[in-house]
Specification:
The protein has 417 residues and is an alpha/beta fold. The protein has twelve helices and eleven strands. Strands 4-7-10-3-11 form a five-stranded parallel sheet, sandwiched between helices. It has a four-stranded mixed sheet with strand order 5-6-9-8. The chain has a two-stranded antiparallel sheet with strand order 1-2. A hairpin with a 6-residue loop joins strand 8 and strand 9. Helix 1 runs antiparallel to helix 2, helix 5 packs across helix 6 and helix 11 runs antiparallel to helix 12. The two termini are 53 Å apart.
Length: 417
């Protein structure tokens, strides 16, 4: 902020204005030079790719000329057909290399101007950047789907599904971490049961608790693996296995700070197996990759965590929550024959539940005397699920919906006070 009064001399004012003008000119020159440098770098990369493409095409043409000039192999007919096959394979390889170079040349270098780089996914098929919402497949809830199994896709689930499928397909262990009720387990189960190639992949699902022991864990896993040969176990021949462990950090910590079931999984990832408790010989488990889920309040040892590719589910924004639960309520009221006036209140029910949920999270904080003041998205989901449990749609109007919602909100939130 520049301030002066009547006593300020004209020379001082001229000096200040001159300094401002010089600063603006310098800023514009700096900005223009950065833009020119970026454009120059882009042109250099394009020129480099064009030269590479030209080199590949020259090699392909030279190989084709050599193949055409090569004399026909004398001898039986089998030798001549073999020579022709070799020349044809050489031409096809050269053309494939040229096509690959052209695809690289078509790669778009410019990133979108809006949002962040993590908001986009690059599709090599059309050489364009797409938002995660754009690549979502068409979604439709099937009739009879249990409420707990419904996963409405959005940007976060699109990101997690894409990364999970890529990592598991390359047999990389994955850890999913996030707050309670954000859909970690449902997303992981969907990837294992639908997105992975079911002709190739099998799944072993485990749920850890405070009373889970290493012996129980090993017995369950060994019971679902097949013996390949002596000392080698795994899924059936030609298949691969996902070992999906939910609530990974739940096992009780022993005296020396370890969690035996977690250490058993660590031994499998570290050494490729564990010891057979009957024969007392090392058992190697092959073609098996670990997928684990845990909450934000759990913790495991660093020597176990170092093996995982960590993925985190964030807290959902209000817009995401409204989209997810409005989609579910509209589907339920519309597919079960409810009155139109009831279907129109879907957004109002979700919005009212969101207001109460946010108010409880802000004002009802846990204290030593009221440690049960802990609310998460499962409480939000319980209210919506309770509103969808009515079995008499013909005799159910908007007044009944309001009364039912009030009952469910009182049951979930008010009964804790």
């Amino acid at each position: 902020m520049i301030s002066w009064n009547a006593s300020t001399s004209a020379g001082a004012r001229s000096t200040v204005f001159f300094a401002i003008i010089c600063g603006l000119v310098f800023f514009n020159k700096t900005k223009r030079s950065k833009a020119l440098a970026a454009e120059e770098l882009r042109m250099k990369m394009l020129e480099r790719r064009r030269s590479k493409l030209a080199q590949v095409e020259q090699e392909a043409e030279l190989q084709q000329r050599r193949s055409a000039a090569e004399p026909v192999v004398s001898g039986p007919e089998g030798r001549q057909s073999t020579a022709r096959a070799h020349r044809r394979e050489a031409r096809e390889a050269a053309h494939a290399a040229a096509r690959q170079a052209r695809r690289h040349l078509q790669l778009s270098l410019s990133l979108p101007d809006k949002g962040e780089v993590h908001d986009y996914c690059y599709k090599a098929g059309d050489s364009k950047w797409h938002t995660w919402v754009d690549i979502l497949p068409p979604f439709e809830i099937q009739d009879g789907t249990p409420f707990a199994s419904i996963v409405v896709p959005h940007a976060v689930t699109s990101q997690m599904t894409y990364m999970l499928k890529m990592l598991l397909s390359h047999e990389k262990p994955v850890m999913i971490c996030g707050p309670t009720g954000t859909g970690k387990s449902a997303t992981a189960a969907k990837v294992c049961s639908l997105d992975l190639d079911q002709e190739l992949w099998r799944t072993i699902t485990l749920g850890f608790s405070a009373k889970t022991t290493a012996h129980m864990t090993q017995s369950i896993i060994d019971g679902k693996l097949s013996k390949r040969r002596k000392g080698i176990f795994g899924p059936p021949a030609g298949k691969k296995m996902v070992l999906f462990v939910d609530d990974f950090s739940m096992p009780e910590v022993e005296t020396y700070g370890a969690q035996p079931p977690v250490e058993l999984i660590r031994q499998h990832v570290d050494n490729g197996g564990w010891y057979d408790l009957k024969e007392m010989a090392f058992q190697k488990n092959v073609d098996t990759v670990v997928l684990a889920c845990m909450g934000v309040h759990g913790s495991i040892t660093p020597r176990m965590m170092r093996h995982f590719n960590l993925m985190c589910f964030p807290e959902f924004h209000d817009s995401v929550l409204e989209r997810v639960f409005s989609t579910i309520t509209e589907w339920y009221f519309g597919s079960h024959g409810y009155l139109p006036e009831v279907t129109k209140l879907s957004h109002a029910v979700v919005h009212a539940t969101l207001e109460i949920y946010r108010g409880a999270m802000t004002n009802l904080l846990p204290t030593p005397k009221k440690s049960h003041y802990t609310f998460n998205l499962r409480d939000f989901s319980r209210v919506i699920q309770g509103c969808l449990m009515n079995e008499t749609p013909n005799d159910f109007d908007k007044t009944d919906l309001v009364r039912l919602w009030l009952h469910e909100a009182t049951r979930v939130f008010s009964d804790r006070l």
